[in-house]
Write a structure and sequence with these properties.
Length: 580
């Protein structure tokens, strides 16, 4: 059997499985389909309106509007490309080396290259559909801005598909090479080199970017000084730059140039598939054998370090356990979750990336070029900063906290036999995740408040709000994961793609939207009163702030405490184990 026919056979089988799932979902879960369809339709309309107005506002800026618009499009597709590479590497790696069904698929009379090709395409579909949905309103808004015809969409959509294909294949190359050839001692010098590059980049950025010296006399050169840090996004060898060129050329009616870059993307996408098949034929089985052979060695090491072989080591309580006042079983459950998190580079890597970018953003709010002497901009930026932090936190909770209970898998009965009840395990998970994420988000908001030179009353106000919302988002994600578990799926990307993950995402978005509105409403009332010249007493301002925090507390109870109570109630029942 040839590689192409084997890959088509795998695609046809999984396509039939997908059709059966869709048919079953349409018949059994009509409410789910209606909810998801309504939310996606609402998102597409809202995203189109907001992006279209934003692009029109930028394009109408005198002197540097077109330059800024062009650079933003380059940056947009560059970050799309980076996000696709990371997400494809995560999902494809789990499907290629960690899925139990690969044990028997490797034993089938199929070429290894066909297995690698199919896993690459499967990971591409799972990782990219959301990005394609996100980019569709942006593409339509760009077409409206350029007043383009059908040729713009006929060339832009295939260009995005080619970008997705190239990023998925690049992820497979990196996975195969790293799993086959990486050595444990590589990570320390690589981490040191990466830390050095990051620190050097940050130092050069902060040393050169003196935006506070910007004045209206030389705004073009100042803007050029800002945009020079984004020149890497315009590198001519990047596929994202070719997609941007397709957008520009087709929007301006230069279809010959757009066709050239489209064919360049198509040729590179086809070449990437060919190279993936070649690397899969030579590297997949050695990499697979290396991963499988490491499992017995790890089990043997774990057997040597078992507690009954070294009882004196485990009878002594650690200093952290004594200080926290937790029992030995509770401390062991916390340590298990921490070690599980640290053993997954996809989790701590993405979390470190998101919080690192947010820290760099919040600590440099004064470098954005806004008139921060104006109370209006201080109000807007402080509330938008809170909104950004909460949206980033909701992304992490949906991605990592929601599948946390399901990832216990069919070994959940072991926890059921432990001295801890499942309800207590759930509360420990909430204490750990809520405490750490609450501390980090509070630190971000506190840093942004210092950057904006907010008074201490406003700083305490925003820190209290983000702390309550952090616990609310963690409680919501963890509770829905316990109420709607999927113990048979080891891939967290598939877990969050189901009904529970979608419901968690929508509920988190609504919770953040309502809470942000409740926090901003007293500020808007005060702004209107000041504009009308009405006096405001300090006691009235305090009452308004406390009412806003009270509304956030009420929403946290509705979206966080009630699902958490239902989840604890369900985990106390033995019927919970029938899901295994």
């Amino acid at each position: 059997m040839s590689s192409a026919s084997a890959t088509l056979l795998l695609a046809r089988i999984h396509g039939q499985m997908l059709r059966h799932r869709i048919r079953h979902g349409l018949m059994e879960n009509r409410l789910l389909v209606l909810t998801i369809g309504s939310f996606l339709g609402l998102y597409c309309v809202a995203a189109y309106v907001l992006v279209s107005r934003g692009l029109e506002f930028i394009s109408r800026m005198p002197l540097f509007g077109p330059l800024l618009l062009e650079r933003l499009i380059y940056i947009l597709f560059f970050f799309f490309f980076v996000m696709l590479v990371i997400s494809n590497a995560t999902i494809t790696g789990m499907g290629m080396f960690r899925r139990k069904d690969m044990d028997w698929q490797v034993a089938l009379p199929l070429p290894y290259r066909s297995l690698v090709l199919w896993k690459t395409l499967e990971g591409m579909a799972l990782a990219s559909w959301g990005l394609l949905v996100l980019s569709a309103p942006i593409l339509v808004a760009l077409g409206r801005l350029y007043d383009a015809g059908p040729g713009f969409y006929l060339l832009g959509a295939p260009a995005l598909l080619c970008l997705v294909t190239i990023s998925a294949n690049l992820s497979s190359w990196l996975l195969l090479i790293l799993v086959r050839h990486a050595r444990p001692w590589w990570w320390k010098p690589v981490a040191a080199l990466g830390l050095y590059i990051v620190l050097t980049t940050l130092y050069s950025f902060f040393a050169k970017a003196d935006l506070q010296a910007m004045d209206g006399k030389d705004i073009v050169s100042s803007l050029h000084g800002v945009l020079q840090h984004t020149e890497i996004c315009m590198h001519p060898l990047l596929p994202s730059s070719w997609v941007a060129e397709v957008i520009f050329a087709s929007g301006r009616g230069l279809y010959d140039q757009a066709t050239f870059f489209s064919f360049a993307l198509l040729a590179n996408a086809l070449f990437a598939l060919t190279l993936t098949a070649k690397l899969g034929n030579h590297l997949f089985y050695p990499a697979w054998h290396r991963v499988m052979s490491a499992v017995p060695m790890a089990r043997a090491q774990a057997a040597q370090d078992a507690w009954f072989r070294h009882p004196e080591k485990y009878l002594r309580r650690s200093l952290a356990a004594r200080l926290s006042g937790m029992k030995r079983a509770e401390h062991a459950a916390i340590i298990k979750d921490i070690r599980t998190f640290l053993r997954e580079p996809t989790q701590w890597g993405q979390s470190l990336l998101i919080f690192g970018l947010l820290l760099m953003y919040t600590s440099n709010l004064r470098r954005l070029g806004y008139d921060l002497q104006s109370p209006f901009w201080i109000i807007v930026i402080s509330h938008l900063n809170l909104l950004v932090c909460c949206l980033a936190l909701s992304t992490l909770t949906t991605r990592f906290i929601f599948p946390q209970f399901s990832m216990e898998g069919q070994r959940l009965w072991i926890l059921g036999l432990s001295p801890l009840s499942l309800a207590r395990v759930l509360s420990l998970k909430l204490r750990l995740s809520g405490g750490i994420m609450g501390l980090l988000t509070t630190l971000l908001v506190f840093t942004s408040s210092l950057s904006l030179s907010l008074p201490w009353q406003r700083t305490v106000f925003f820190c209290a709000a983000v702390l309550m919302m952090s616990y609310g988002l963690n409680a919501l994600a963890l509770s829905l994961g316990a109420l709607l578990p999927n113990f048979r799926e080891p891939n967290p990307a598939r877990i969050i793609s189901g009904f529970g993950g979608t419901l968690c995402l929508i509920s988190s978005f609504l919770y953040i939207l309502f809470s942000s509105t409740a926090l901003a409403l007293p500020e808007a009332i005060r702004w209107k009163a000041q504009a009308a010249g009405l006096p405001l007493s300090p006691s009235l301002i305090l009452i308004q702030d406390l009412s806003g925090l009270g509304a956030v507390l009420f929403l946290s109870l509705v979206f966080g405490a009630i699902p958490y109570w239902l989840a604890k109630k369900r985990t106390k029942s033995l019927d919970y184990l029938k899901e295994l």
